[in-house]
Specification:
Largest sheet: 5 strands, antiparallel
Distance between the termini: 41 Å
Number of strands: 16
Structural class: alpha+beta
Helix content: 40-55%
Oligomer: single chain
Number of helices: 12
Strand content: 15-25%
Radius of gyration: 52 Å
């Protein structure tokens, strides 16, 4: 694999990883936003259901007391005589009513149940500004008013539903007292399960009394996701909800799965690319010596002669082993293969890293020398190669083999012939050198 190919692969890998990270984060963000929107819609629906439940619960308690109010308006004496029995039935059917009081002239004379509420007897509502304001509103509107929560004289906090009582229903001046439902606010919170909410932070306030927040944190109203008005009898309340949604609950999983998928894809492509380069390298490599093969050296020569920005000066050396057939015939092809590998290694030791050595086939090698532009230079290199190889014997199973080679070369410049002619010239000179070696008796020697 060339340096250019490696740099290209690094660049493509970087772009792929960057694009993968962007796509994964994009889809994780989309999923996160969708999840967040769905969570918000769900929590808004839950808040609306809570408001409806709160309104229904309080209105049911008030509606249940209307019958007692009617009896008290029609027959005060009957109500006073049968107070315990009538009030007991109302309390028994209620979930929130802590106690019921009857206050002629705004002074409490009747309480049910009496136990635990003795201190309420004789209480004058006019001594409590806030409670008396609710009674006056009920008197003016001639309808029930839900107010509070208030701190009670008998202890604790509660909501008060004040029912005005009139001797003559159409005559405000015939007002004679009030009937009060004391609604336990702690029980209300428990029924609504406000304290068990984890994903929503709720707060309640009475907007009619200076925006008094009586449940939750006032900061919830400041940063509320939704504020819902409550429809209560002459009461102005608001419910605020701040959502503690966790939109990233599954975003991490999406990122992890996306990263795993991209990694698997990257590894798969990397394996294919590696396989491609291995196959390509194998197709350009000699199996025995691991040098470049004929196809590889021809591609290099073609690049050198076709490119416009490459070195035009180079030389080639054609090398052939003398009497190689005799080595195979005498000691077998394994010995011949060992000799070829030995010569290939010695060529690599002698030449520069930038030079290319190829095995053309059999016992023939071809060397490509870059930046050589004269016959004198190439001739000196040929003699150096010959001297080194012929003075580097191979020890094969106790036999010492002194190789002998024949060489032919040719130089290429911008004015010389094409590659075919260049190869033919080097081959011709190699055969001339081989003939000369035969005449002089120079051959591969086995000791």
């Amino acid at each position: 694999m060339t340096r250019r190919s490696i740099l290209l692969l690094i660049l493509l890998s970087t772009l792929y990883l960057g694009a993968s990270a962007f796509v994964i984060e994009y889809f994780a963000h989309l999923y996160q936003q969708q999840e967040y929107v769905e969570e918000q819609l769900y929590l808004r629906k839950q808040s609306a259901l809570l408001r409806a439940k709160l309104e229904t619960t309080l209105n049911q308690e008030i509606f249940a007391a209307e019958s007692l109010v009617v009896i008290a308006n029609i027959n005060r004496e009957f109500t006073a005589q049968h107070w315990q029995h009538i009030a007991a039935q109302l309390v028994a059917r209620s979930q929130l009513v802590r106690s019921i009081t009857l206050a002629p002239n705004n002074i409490v004379e009747y309480v049910y149940p009496l136990e635990g509420n003795q201190r309420a007897l004789g209480f004058d509502y006019r001594t409590d500004e806030k409670q008396f304001a609710a009674i006056e509103q009920a008197q003016q509107t001639q309808s029930v008013v839900l107010a509070g929560p208030f701190t009670l004289v008998q202890g604790g906090e509660a909501l008060l539903a004040q029912f005005p009582l009139f001797a003559t229903p159409a005559d405000k001046s015939s007002y004679w007292g009030t009937l009060s439902l004391v609604l336990d606010i702690t029980t209300l919170y428990h029924l609504l399960e406000l304290d068990s909410q984890e994903q929503v932070q709720y707060a309640l306030k009475n907007t009619a009394e200076g925006s008094l927040v009586f449940y939750g944190d006032a900061d919830t109203f400041t940063h509320a996701d939704v504020i819902l008005p409550l429809h209560l009898p002459n009461g102005r309340w608001a419910l605020a909800a701040k959502f503690n949604a966790e939109p990233q609950r599954h975003a991490t999983l999406i990122r992890a799965l996306g990263a795993l998928l991209c990694l698997v894809l990257f590894v798969s492509v990397a394996i294919l690319v590696r396989a491609y380069f291995l196959v390509k390298a194998t197709s350009l490599q000699d199996d025995l010596t691991l040098l470049a093969n004929r196809r590889a050296i021809m591609l290099h020569l073609d690049d050198l002669t076709r490119g416009s920005d490459v070195h035009k000066y180079f030389a080639i050396i054609n090398i052939d082993v003398n009497d190689f057939k005799a080595v195979n015939d005498s000691y077998g092809h394994d010995c011949g293969d060992a000799l070829l590998v030995h010569i290939a290694k010695e060529l690599q030791r002698t030449l520069r890293d930038s030079d290319i050595i190829a095995r053309l086939g059999g016992d023939e090698f071809l060397v490509l020398l870059h930046r050589i532009n004269s016959d004198e230079q190439i001739a000196a290199i040929v003699e150096k190669l010959r001297l080194h190889i012929e003075s580097s014997p191979l020890n094969y199973k106790g036999h010492i083999i002194y190789p002998s080679i024949s060489c032919g070369f040719s130089c290429h410049t911008e004015c010389t012939l094409d590659i075919a002619a260049l190869l033919a010239q080097a081959d011709k000179r190699m055969y001339e050198d081989k003939q000369s070696n035969k005449l002089s008796g120079k051959k591969t020697v086995i000791a």
